[in-house]
């Protein structure tokens, strides 16, 4: 008679967790940008005595840029997508076939070492 061995397994999915609708720690970037933007707004408004609109103009881009980065380049994207996106912007074609850098008749050009 054979004995069956029962062992505990971890059958849970490998999730980094969710907070505020964002995967993993992405919400921390948005939260930190919000706090920094709010602090900058308070400094411009109460310390430097700027009006509402100028203080908002100087402080809002911090939050908006970070939120856009998280929402468009990190949310529901594979790991390293943002880095690859900016690398493609800087380096251009990368590993792709670029027609204008290929010789039209490769057999007629001399082979260079």
Radius of gyration from CA coordinates: 26 Å
Share of helical residues: 40-55%
Number of helices, counting only DSSP H or I runs of 4 residues or more: 3
Classify the oligomer: single chain
Q: What is the succession of H and E elements? A: EEHHH
**Which of globular, elongated, flat, extended, rod-shaped describes the shape?**
flat
Name the poorly predicted regions.
none
Q: What fraction of the residues are assigned to beta strands by DSSP?
A: under 5%
Quick check: average pLDDT?
81
Strand tally: 2
Derived structural class: mainly alpha
Largest beta-sheet details: 2 strands, antiparallel
- Spatial order of the strands in the main sheet? 1-2
| Ends distance | 71 Å
Can you describe this structure?
With 113 residues, this protein is mostly helical. The protein has a domain at 20-79. The chain has helices at residues 26-47, 52-73, 81-91, and strands spanning 18-19, 22-23. Strands 1-2 form a two-stranded antiparallel sheet. α1 packs antiparallel against α2. The protein is flat and about 70 Å long. The protein starts with 17 loop residues before the first strand and ends in a 22-residue tail after the last helix. The mean pLDDT is 81.
Topology:
Blueprint: E1 18-19, E2 22-23, H1 26-47, H2 52-73, H3 81-91
Antiparallel strand pairs: 1-2
Helix pairs in contact: 1-2
What attributes characterize this protein structure?
113 residues, single chain, two-stranded antiparallel sheet, 2 strands, mainly alpha
